[in-house]
Design goal:
The chain starts with a helix and ends in a 6-residue tail after the last strand. It contains 2 helices and 12 strands; from the N terminus they run H-E-E-E-E-E-E-E-E-H-E-E-E-E. By secondary structure, it is α+β, with helices and mostly antiparallel strands. Helix content is 24%, strand content 40%. The protein has 2 domains: 1-44; 49-187. A 4-stranded antiparallel beta sheet has the order 1-2-3-4, with no helix packed on it. A 4-stranded antiparallel beta sheet has the order 5-6-7-8.
């Protein structure tokens, strides 16, 4: 009888230990599933991408500015020309008429804190003679015409001539050509809209 009681006690203890172990294992699994559910319900925010693009006049090339978060990438087709970290109030835009008629150049508009700046770039991504991959038009314009304010760049008059609009206190509408290879500004008698 003592043997039967001892055996019964031993079997009961094993049953209690196995039950306790199974319950503990289930609690750990439940906790892991709860953690996984929380992680699945609360995904990390990802910045959305914005793409601005313009097709060349003959439809063979495309310039695009891809912005994701604070990073902007400038592309011509599959060729990435450059990346730029954008400041909080900065935008990089691809205007209409961005392409030169021969697809060799394009221009972009950079806006920062409401002020516009215009860049000219080679479609191949090659740097200009002075070494930069893009030329800022406003700086040399302001040096040549300190009494004028550059207002806009409207497009191309020829493969190398960009149309620039400016103003002064006395003259609200003045147009120029910017000749890309020579970096010269040529004042026009008519205003281009």
């Amino acid at each position: 009888m003592k043997k039967i009681l001892g055996l019964t006690f031993f079997v009961a203890m094993i049953g209690v230990l196995v039950g306790w172990g199974m319950e503990r294992k289930q609690k750990v699994q439940d906790k892991q599933e709860d953690t996984l559910e929380i992680m699945a319900v609360e995904p990390l925010p990802t910045p959305t991408a914005r793409v601005m693009e313009q097709v060349s006049p003959d439809g063979r090339m495309m310039v695009s500015v891809n912005i994701k978060g604070e990073q902007a990438g400038i592309w011509v087709g599959d060729l990435m020309l450059m990346t730029k970290r954008l400041e909080p109030e900065e935008e990089l835009l691809v205007p209409f008429n961005a392409w030169s008629p021969d697809n060799k150049y394009f221009f972009l508009e950079r806006k920062i804190a409401g002020e516009s700046e215009f860049w000219v770039m080679k479609a191949t991504g090659e740097p200009f003679v002075e070494g930069g991959i893009y030329r800022v038009i406003a700086e040399p314009f302001t040096l040549a015409y300190p009494e004028l304010t550059l207002v806009s760049v409207t497009g191309w008059a020829s493969p190398t001539l960009l149309i620039i609009n400016a103003k002064s206190e006395n003259e609200p509408k003045i147009s120029f050509w910017y000749e890309v290879p020579s970096k010269q500004f040529i004042r026009l008698s008519s205003y281009f809209y």
